[in-house]
Each structure stands twice: as C-alpha cells, then as structure tokens.
Amino acid sequence: MSKVDYALMYVTDDSIRDDNHFFAILEGALKGGATIIQLREKTSDTLAFYKRALRCKELCSNYEIPLLINDRLDIALAIDADGVHIGQSDMPYEVARRLLGNSKIIGLSVSNKEHAEQPNAQAADYIGISPIFSTNIKTTDLAKPLGILGLKEIRQIYKKPIVCIGGIHKDNTQEIIANGADGIAVVSAISKADNPEETSRELKNILCKTGTN
Ligand SMILES: Cc1ncc(COP(=O)(O)OP(=O)(O)O)c(N)n1
Ligand SMILES: Cc1ncsc1CCOP(=O)(O)O
Ligand SMILES: [Mg+2]
User: Fold this and answer.
1) Is the complex ipTM more than 0.90?
2) pTM across the whole model
3) Domain range 8-210, its CATH number among 3.20.20.70, 3.30.930.10, 3.30.9.10, 3.40.1360.10
4) Is 89 a catalytic residue?
5) 3-state class (DSSP) for residue 95
6) What are the coiled-coil residue ranges (predicted)?
7) What is the mean pLDDT of each run of 10 residues along the chain (213 residues)?
C-alpha cells in the first residue's frame, strides 16, 4: 500500500442504526476530506457488521480512501479491508499480523508511555493515543486521558505515526497536531455535526494549515 495519510480518521458511530443516516454521514465525511475510515461496530451481530463493512468498503473505494475495521479480524479478512484497529485487550498484535500479512495496516491503542514502548506498538503501523481527552462515546475500558503532556511524552519515544482519539473537535485539533500527532480520529465531531461534510472539511483545513499534509 502507498503511504497512508492518517490526518483525519473518521471512526463510525455505532449508535446510528439507521443505514441511510449512517451512510449519509460516512459519505459526508469522505466528501469533506476524511483521509481514512475506521468502521467501529460494538453492538451489531456478525451479519449486520459484515453487511455494513461491505458497503463501507464500496463507498471508501469510490473515494480511494482506506478502510480499517475495529477489533474484528474476521470481518477485515472477509471483506479484504485495508487493515484493522486493535486495542490492548483485543487480538494480540502478532496474531493479527500473522493473519493479515504485511501489506495490511494494523493500528494499536496505547493509553500510556509503557504501552508505546512495547514491541507490539513499535511494530504496529501506527498507534492511537486513547483517550487524549475525555469523551462521552466510549464508556467502557477507558483509561485516564493522556492530555497534551502525555502526547508530548509519547512523541519523544515513538517514531511512527501517532493518531489521537477522544474528545477531539475543531477547537482542540490545532493543539494536538502542533504537539506531535500525525492525525486525529473523531466520532461525534463528525457523526453529530449538523453538517458532517462541512465539519469534516473544516477539520481538514485546520489539519492542513497546522501541517500534517
Ligand atoms: C485510532 C483509534 N485509537 C484508539 C481506539 C480505541 O481502541 P480500543 O482501545 O480497542 O477500544 P474500542 O474502539 O475497540 O472500543 C480506536 N478505536 N481508534
Ligand atoms: C473509540 C474511542 N476510543 C477512545 S475514545 C473513543 C471515542 C471517541 O469519540 P469522540 O471522538 O466522539 O470523543
Ligand atoms: Mg478494540
């Protein structure tokens, strides 16, 4: 795969069960300039997840934007996604790599400096600092927010791309990038926006001005 642009990751909102609404937001995010998409389904059954994944893949392919699958290696393999995002309690990194091969993207969540120093984080394609700020979207298994100081500390020891997630919106994006992140991952900033396409474009403009592209 050619160089991946992690600047603006839209992580889909699994609370949106209506497919028309779900895919309208996804298309808005893509039109506005999302550079990578992560399909995150925490409550749907396997068939529903698989069907959404197939439609996401088609839509993302139309915009030539990579699609990652959250947690589920089987879904990623089934639809030949571009990669997965896994957390500290998900499938071990080395197993995910063995199953997916070297050409796929694997992102790993880190919640402290020790996580970022571990061999699996060093081997991953990128890390997701999780969470950078507090969020209302993910309420289980969520570590204490690392904040800008935590980001700066991890930036000093981690050389590959860093994506931050949690409580990110237009007013704190610039600060995150200025302090060493390569990209932001957002759920509600886009999914709950009155105009997801416009918001995605505004976030992208901030990212471009601050220098991720
Ligand atoms: C880019 C990015 N970073 C972190 C996460 C969180 O992953 P995880 O800790 O596995 O939690 P869930 O998203 O699976 O609830 C993420 N999804 N994306
Ligand atoms: C999936 C996830 N992982 C850490 S925070 C989070 C949710 C981020 O949602 P929002 O961008 O709305 O704060
Ligand atoms: Mg996970």
Assistant:
1) yes
2) 0.98
3) 3.20.20.70
4) no
5) helix
6) none
7) 92 97 98 98 97 98 98 98 98 98 98 98 98 88 94 98 98 98 98 98 96 69
